Amino acid sequence: MVASLTRVLEQMAADPSMPVGRLDVLGAAERARVTAQSGTTAREHARRARAGEPTRSPALAPELFAQQAAATPTAVALVDGARTLTYGELVAESAGLARRLVRAGVAPETRVAVVADRSAELVVALLAVSTAGGVYVPVDPGLPEARMRMLLDDVAPPVLVCTRAARDAVPPDFTGRLVVVDDPAGAEVEGPVTDHGHTRPLTADHAAYVIYTSGSTGTPKGAVVPHRGLRNLVADRVERYRIGADSAVLQLVPPSFDVSMADIWPVLCAGGRLVLAPPTKHHASGEDLVRLMRAERVTHVAMTPTVLAQLPPEELPLLRVLIVGGEPLPDELRGQWTAGREVYSEYGVTEATVASTVSHPLGHPLDAPGTPPIGRPIAGTGAYVLDAFLHPVPPGAVGELYLSGVGLARGYLSRPGLTAQRFVACPFAPGQRMYRTGDLARWTDDGELRYAGRADAQVKVRGFRVEPGEIEAALAGHPEVGRAVVVLRQDREGERRLVGYVVPRGSGGVDPELVRAYAAKELPGHMVPAAVLALDALPATHNGKVDITALPAPDFAELSSGRAPQGAAEEILCAMFAEVLGLERVGADANFFTLGGDSITSMQLVSRARRAGAFFGAQDVFEHRSPAALARVVRLGDRTPHGADGGTDEGEVVWTPVMRALGERAAMGPGFTQWVVIGTPPGLDADTLTAGLRALLDAHAMLRARTEADGPEPRLVVGRRGSVDAAELITRIDATGESAQDLDEWADRAAREAVLRLEPRSGVMLQAAWVDAGAGRVGRLALVVHHLAVDGVSWRILVPDLRAACEAVAAGRQPRLDPVGTSFRRWSRLLAQEAAARHRVAELDDWTRVLDTREPPLGTRELDPERDIAEGERHRSWVVPPQQTATLTARTPALFHCGVHEVLLATLAGAVVLGRSGSGGVAVPGRPASHGAGTHQRTGSDGTILLDVEGHGRKPVGDADLLRTVGWFTSVHPIRLDLAAIDVTRALEGGPAAGTLLKAVKEQARAVPGDGLGYGLLRHLNPDTSPVLAALPVPRIGFNYLGRFPAGSREGALAPWQMAGQDAIGGSSDPAMPTLHSLEASAAVRDTLDGPELTITLTWHPAVLDDAAADRLGRRWLDLLAGLAAHTTHPAAGGHTPSDFPLIELAQDEVEQFEAIAAELEGGRTW
């Protein structure tokens, strides 16, 4: 600051006549540094382009989609409710429509209006317009007629595409060519559109789409975005958010909003699944979205904080990437959602292709509360913070944000004057333009941008940029209004509403409700004021401007009076209306939207009403707007969700197959545990933790279980609520002053010590070791639970629940956790019934064939359950190199149409075969042990392997709802793999044999009887089938792919409630537990900030298998993974197998013949 002041004074002294605008606050070095950090990516992109160097893929978005469809035609591309389209089906439908458009005259720069709600047909239309070379212009069919006409007049599209459902929204006097996308009469089924089908080639300079935004003069303006910007957006998003074949992206924002382009194009160009939310007119509630996201296993979503606040983070464990923008992200929401996933704050404007800057993942502790940073410019983009004279401002100073680079729009359609005002010459890059955003921002010292408000009157409403002037013009258009002002008010915390103020024309009066209704016919829903107030005159400041601070707040209470509620339904609904809208009371006939409600508050109403036992949907709120009308359609009931237990969760639990496989008494050992270590928020106290833990014990019955071994058979019994004292389960460890690294070590040690305090016979199934780091610091909490009560999936329920309970207590509220659908006790009884079901018993012969061949011995002898116990086991892990991991977890599964599970299983099986053949050495000849009297099994060759494969076990049985059930659900089933016809040695070299190995194992793994659950049921719960399976050989090798776990930076600070440690889940075996397999193989992927990290682990007993042999097998496994990764990069790698075509019977050679024919027919470039 002193240096800047000195510099300004020196310039003034040197030239007193110098205009203030030419005074430079920054020195030369500081100016160079600021401009360098502002535009590095844009300048580098421009330099490389001038030099002819590759920037990113030259293919445009429609080409990338066509290439992906050709590579994975059978993969699911689009999910729209009950309708699913593969890439092959989607490209066929869009290509058929594209040919119709080309014949209608569509070519590059031809604008095509698309009138459709969110649907598969909308996506087909978007792809078809782009494939034909045209310019996509989305138009919301729900727009008022006047606004629809205004947009179509401005666009002047020669062709309009609509759906049959939206046909009536098209003005009847539209004079262009009308194409109905879902009209069966116009459908075509020919091949893809090629270069020869276009009148001229599509280039990066051609327009891709036009998106309309609010205009300050009362007229919306259309930003014209070229394909160059869309291509850059796709490339950056796919790379930054790691969108690939295993990704499922939810398309949530309205199609006429530019963010929809960022939802749709990247995932379809990367081979993932696009999941469409219900159409806008259906007004999906938060619960509706959660159900959809869970059912479709959504991994990525972009939404505003307002919508995000309606969703429970603990219900979405598979969500990996969350992108927020459009509004400030409150600290509380940030804290709730950053645990266990990556959350990014994104900034962008329509005029610069959706996204221009992105923050780092917001997973650090909230030691700097407030609006999170909007980050740094994305690739190909420049961001400048300038003063009124276009001089860069120093870090910390607020200036106006300007954007430059490849993402810039051409300008506004048919608005050259406005384009010239907003798109100006860039003084830092000769020949380039920059866009004046009107947003204020500042650079931080570490080179990130922070949003600081607006330089003009524009506001944001539910993520939409809105010009109050456009709303004012609509209000003033009413014949009785003389003047109008619109303000965005926040009269309650977290609630922002547009309010209009009107002054009557002349001496007459004006009805504000009629004025609001008039404006609603001109404006889209998000721009209609929540209330309009009539004033005799607008208050003014001393200089004659409208005094915004003196404008009165709307009194919705006046509108909420009316008759008192009658009956339980009306009483609940009136109370919920009042709670959501912030009113003291609401009459039974009051209109929800007249009282200030909107689509977001309708979601809140649905959610809160359900907690009170009243069930209805958000669409019902729009159709039945008063408590009285809603009461006629609402369903009253208890707070138990569909599929929930009809009985108690207390009492005896039936031993499940996995428990019986280990042995009931062995499973009861106190040292058989799992644990997690999580960060604790600063300020946590013992009372809060105790109350939170008590809520957890009450909600999840298995945490109250105990074992009983006094009778002839051991028993597992769940106690009543309150039977376990939460305070006695907590051990506090004072670690004040310890470093973060020391805290992690203390927590690990505390977890292992807590294992010793578990006592299942006394009902002590849980211990909480709290490592208290002192005031103002994030501590650690080691939660240790006996394995009988928990599994890996359970932690995704327990940790968010504990957090929610503790935060409620800290805020002075009673913790209320969501109910559990089906208790583990009932689930165990359902399994016992399922074991006797006819369709399960029918699997017996198939399981017998799987096991009816004895394996060559692995190691020196068979396991002896009396001698070979967990206490003597050895473990070793290997980390797969990062580049190979990136290939094996994304590209390999995509090319071979399989999962990471098959990749790992195939290479493990190959390593075992190599060992038997002497190429790796794991088997030591010995006498095979007897499997009991009367056994007559064949002996397998060196090319077959029998393994036990472990899964999560949460399979659908009956009407069970296991989304929130905690317990040990794991299931295990055998699988026999025959690799005799495969040259596994060649697979090591990265040749075609590696692909052949993966395809063979993929097919055999998918051929297990039923869903795999039946083996455990028949082996352990059915007395008739159990002896048959017990007499057969058992696998000597076990395999378990633990899945993918989110992980933060290794060096980054731990956030409250975030999981800590190298392993997402720790665990221990009771020392006396028998070793079940001669060799246990497991693997897990950690999604770190640097990319995925794959770790493989082997566990063995040295009395059976020596350390050197285990080490050789592990290295062979690693080598085969490397070979498969190398093979994946070959152009000929990949392909389908018969199981990819379940509706027809094909052999592998027939599949390959069809693929060869398809490749031959696809010659030439497609769009």
Automatic annotation (TrEMBL):
<protein>
    <recommendedName>
        <fullName>Carrier domain-containing protein</fullName>
    </recommendedName>
</protein>
<dbReference type="InterPro" id="IPR020845">
    <property type="entry name" value="AMP-binding_CS"/>
</dbReference>
<dbReference type="Pfam" id="PF00668">
    <property type="entry name" value="Condensation"/>
</dbReference>
<keyword id="KW-0677">Repeat</keyword>
<dbReference type="Pfam" id="PF13193">
    <property type="entry name" value="AMP-binding_C"/>
</dbReference>
<keyword id="KW-0596">Phosphopantetheine</keyword>
<dbReference type="InterPro" id="IPR045851">
    <property type="entry name" value="AMP-bd_C_sf"/>
</dbReference>
<dbReference type="InterPro" id="IPR036736">
    <property type="entry name" value="ACP-like_sf"/>
</dbReference>
<dbReference type="InterPro" id="IPR025110">
    <property type="entry name" value="AMP-bd_C"/>
</dbReference>
<dbReference type="GO" id="GO:0017000">
    <property type="term" value="P:antibiotic biosynthetic process"/>
</dbReference>
<dbReference type="GO" id="GO:0008610">
    <property type="term" value="P:lipid biosynthetic process"/>
</dbReference>
<dbReference type="GO" id="GO:0043041">
    <property type="term" value="P:amino acid activation for nonribosomal peptide biosynthetic process"/>
</dbReference>
<feature type="domain" description="Carrier">
    <location>
        <begin position="564"/>
        <end position="638"/>
    </location>
</feature>
<dbReference type="InterPro" id="IPR010071">
    <property type="entry name" value="AA_adenyl_dom"/>
</dbReference>
<dbReference type="InterPro" id="IPR010060">
    <property type="entry name" value="NRPS_synth"/>
</dbReference>
<dbReference type="GO" id="GO:0005737">
    <property type="term" value="C:cytoplasm"/>
</dbReference>
<dbReference type="InterPro" id="IPR009081">
    <property type="entry name" value="PP-bd_ACP"/>
</dbReference>
<keyword id="KW-0045">Antibiotic biosynthesis</keyword>
<dbReference type="GO" id="GO:0031177">
    <property type="term" value="F:phosphopantetheine binding"/>
</dbReference>
<dbReference type="Pfam" id="PF00501">
    <property type="entry name" value="AMP-binding"/>
</dbReference>
<dbReference type="InterPro" id="IPR006162">
    <property type="entry name" value="Ppantetheine_attach_site"/>
</dbReference>
<comment type="similarity">
    <text>Belongs to the ATP-dependent AMP-binding enzyme family.</text>
</comment>
<dbReference type="InterPro" id="IPR000873">
    <property type="entry name" value="AMP-dep_synth/lig_dom"/>
</dbReference>
<keyword id="KW-0597">Phosphoprotein</keyword>
<dbReference type="InterPro" id="IPR001242">
    <property type="entry name" value="Condensation_dom"/>
</dbReference>
<dbReference type="InterPro" id="IPR020806">
    <property type="entry name" value="PKS_PP-bd"/>
</dbReference>
<dbReference type="Pfam" id="PF00550">
    <property type="entry name" value="PP-binding"/>
</dbReference>
<feature type="region of interest" description="Disordered">
    <location>
        <begin position="34"/>
        <end position="57"/>
    </location>
</feature>
<dbReference type="GO" id="GO:0044550">
    <property type="term" value="P:secondary metabolite biosynthetic process"/>
</dbReference>
<dbReference type="InterPro" id="IPR023213">
    <property type="entry name" value="CAT-like_dom_sf"/>
</dbReference>
<dbReference type="GO" id="GO:0003824">
    <property type="term" value="F:catalytic activity"/>
</dbReference>
